[in-house]
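Worked example 4.2. Below are the chains of a multi-component assembly; read each line carefully before continuing.
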Amino acid sequence: MNFFEQQRKNRQRSILVLGLFCVGVLLIGLAVHVVASLVAMASGESQTIWELSTHTKILIGMVWLTVALGSLFRWLDVRGGGIKLAQRFRAAPVLATSRSDADRLLLSVVAEIAVAAGQPMPSVWVLHRESTINAFVLGRKNDIALVVSQGALDLLDEDELRGIVAHEFGHLVQGDLPLNMRLLIVLGGLLAIDEVGRVLTGRDPQGNAHPGVIVGYVLCAVGSVGVFVASVIRAAYSRQREYLADASAVQFTRDTFGIASALDQAGSLYDVARLESPYAGELAHLCFHSESAWSWPGKALWRRWLSSHPTPQQRINAIEPYFQIKKRKRSRRESRSQTPSKQAPVIGNNVRVIDTVAELSGSFSDRFQLMVSDSTAGLAVLFALFASDQEEDRERYLADVGFAYNADFAVRVKECLDHFQVELEQCPLAIIRHVKPLLKEVQPENRIRLLRSIESILKSCNSFDIGSCVTLRLLKHELDVEFPLLDEVVGRINDQGELEALATAEPAQQRQVKQLSEITDEIALLLSLVVEASGAPQEEADECYDRVLQAYTHEDIPRRYANEPGGGEAMEAAFELLRAQPQITRQAFINHCAEIVLYDGSLLRKENILLQIFAAALDIDFGSAMSFAKAA
Amino acid sequence: MSTLVILGVIGVAFVLYGVMIYNKLIRFKNHFRNAYSQIDVQLQRRHELIPNLVEIARGYLKHEQQTLVAVTEARNAAASCSKDAAADPGNPGVMQALAKAESQLAGAMGKLNVVMEAYPELKADERMQDLHDELTSTENRVGYARQAYSDAVMRYNAYREQFPPVIVAQLFSFKEADLFAVVSEEIKQPVSVSFDQAA
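Applying the procedure described above to all two chains together yields the following C-alpha cells:
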C-alpha cells in the first residue's frame, strides 16, 4: 500500500466533503431567509425577496439564536479532557504498575506507536465490559485518552493490536478529534432549526394554532432535510477520514497484514459493537469499527449513506488487496509447523486427552443446541452444571434452587439434568462457552446475582468442593463480570492454617508476591484439595502430596482436607491469590496438578475435566501443561 | 490609480503566500530535528537499562563474569560515544565511532543472551522478565524512532523541492536534510557475531 499517496488522496477527498458540508449549511441558512421573506411577501409586508421587514428580521434572528444556543449546549456536553470522557464511559485506567500480561503488552505497544507517530504517550484505558473488538481516542490537545475494549485485548495478537492502536494514533495525528467535535456541534445547531419549526407548528395554551404555523411546517421540513443532508455529508467525511486513519496506521507500523487481520476479526465477530453509553453515537466516527458498517448488506440505502465507517471488507481491500491469500498461506504454514504437543497427546493407557473446545462442542447433540438457545435455558443449564452426583444432595440442591428463584425454574434445571447427563459430565467447559453468548443480554447486576446465588446454594448444600469452586471462578471470568469489584482478597491463611480476614479488602492485582515462600500455605491447601479430589488411597495421596510440595517449600505443611470447617472461604481466598500471581507460577501449579493426577498412571475423564477447568480458570494453556506432565 | 491599488493587493497576497510557505518549511524542519533527538532518547534508554540487566544477571551467572564485564564495558563506550555525537552531530569521525561502539554493544548483548539460555532460573526471575520486556520494547522504539525520523526528513525534502516552496527555500537557504545521517553508518558496520565464550 502506498500510504503516503493514499493519505494525500484521502485528505483531498475529505476537504472536498467538508466544503460540501459548509455549502450545505449556507444553503440551509439561505432557505430559512427565503422562507421568512416569502411569508413576509405573502402577508404584504415587503415587495421583494430581498427586502426584509422588521418582523422577518426578528424571526430570522431568533432562528439563528436558537442554532447558536443549540450548538453551545452540544459543545458544553461533549467537551472535557480525555480523562473525564474516558471515565464517563466507565473505562478502567491501565496503570503502569499493573502485572497483567495483557496490560503490559498494551502499554508497550501504545508507547512504541507513540514514538512512531511522534506523539506524547496518551493515558490508556480499557473497557472491561466490551467483548467486541474496538478502540477509540478521546480528548483535547494535552489530555488524550486511548480506550481499548477487552475483546481487543483477548482476541487480537500483538501485530493486530499494534494495528488498531496505530489506527487510533492516525486519527490523532490527522487532527480528527477537534474537527469532528466541531462538525458535531454544527449538527447540533442545525437540529435546533427543526426544534424551532416544531414549536411553531404546536398549539398555544388556548388551543389555537400559532400565526406562523405554515412557517413552522416549512421550517420543520427545511430542518429535517437539512439535518439529513448534513448527516449524510458528515458520514461521508467520516468514512474518508477512516481510510485516512488506516493509511496512517500503515505508515506507523509499516505492516499491512496486522491491521487487515484485525479488521477481518472485528468484522466477523458474532456480537454487534455496543458501547454502553448515551454518548456512544458521537464516538462512532472515532472508533475502530462500527455496527452500521457491519450490518451493511441487505439494509436500506439510507442506512449505508449514514454509516460512519466503511465496511471492514472495503477497508481491507484498500490496505491489503491480497489479504485472503496471505491469510491462507499463513495458516497453512502454522498448521504445518505445529508441534506434536499441541495436538491431543496420548498418555499412558490409551487415554486420550481432549484439549480443544472445538472437539468438545462437536460432540454436543443437536438436541442440546436446540434446547439451549435462550438466556433462561442457558441459566438452567448452568445451575445443572453444579448439581452433585448423589441423589440426596441433588434433591436438596433442586429444592434450594426452587426456593431461591421459582418452582418452574427448578423444574427446568431438573429437565436439563435428566436430558443432558452426558454433556454435563463430559464437557463442562464447552457448555460454559456455549452459554456465554446467550447470557450477554443479562444485565451485569443480574449476572453477579446469579453467581452469588449459585455460590450460596452450593455452600448451603455442603457440596462446595474444589471442583465447584474452580468452576464458579471460571464462570465469573467467562461472564465478563468486572473484576475489580469481585476479585478482592478479603482474607489470608495465617500460620495456624486458618483463614484470617484482612482489615481492608485489597484488589487481587496487588497481592503478587516476590517470593513463592510467602504463599506456601495457600498453595499447600490447594494442592491437598487436588490430591484429595484425585481419589487416590490415603498413603499414595500423602506421598504424592509431599513430593509435589517439595517443589514449593521445604517446610512441612500438613495435608488439609475438604471437610474442614471454614474450608470453603479459605479455598476461595487461596485460589484468588494464586490467580493474581504471574504466569510462570500459575503454569507451574497446573503442571504439578497434572503430575498429581497422573500419579497413579491413568487419567480418568473426571480428572481430565478438573484439570481443564483449573487451567481455564487460571488462564493457562492446557496443552502445554499436559505435555509437561507427559515428559515428567 | 486603481491599477496601483490592484497591483498592491496582488503584491501583498504574494507576500502573504510566501510567508505561509516559509512557516511551513520551518515547521517541517523542526519536526525532523525533533524526530532526530527522539532516536537519541531511545538509545539512551537502552543504555540505561543495561546496567540493571547486568546487576540481576550477576547473581545467577557467577561463572560468567567475563561476559558481564564485556557487556558493561561496551555499554560505557557506547554511552560516551553518543554523548560526543550529541555535542557534535555533523562530524563524520564521531558518528563512525558511535556506530562502532553500538555494534560492539550489540555483539556483547548477543553473547550474553546466548549464555543466559543455559540458566533457566535466571530466565524465570520476574525482574529479568520485566527487563527483557523493557529491552525488547526499547529496541522496537529505537526502530520506530528511526522510521519517524526518515518519514519527517522525506516530508521536509519533498516539500522543499516542490515548485513555489523551492524559491523560498533558495531565498532563505533551507538545506536538504540528510536522510542517512544516523542510519547508514550503523548499517555499514558488520554485526560481530562470535560464539567464543572468552570475550
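Take a moment to check your reading of the output against the notes. Strands of chain A lie at 92-93, 123-127, 135-140, 143-149, 346-347, 351-352, 488-493, 499-507. Chain A has a mean pLDDT of 72.
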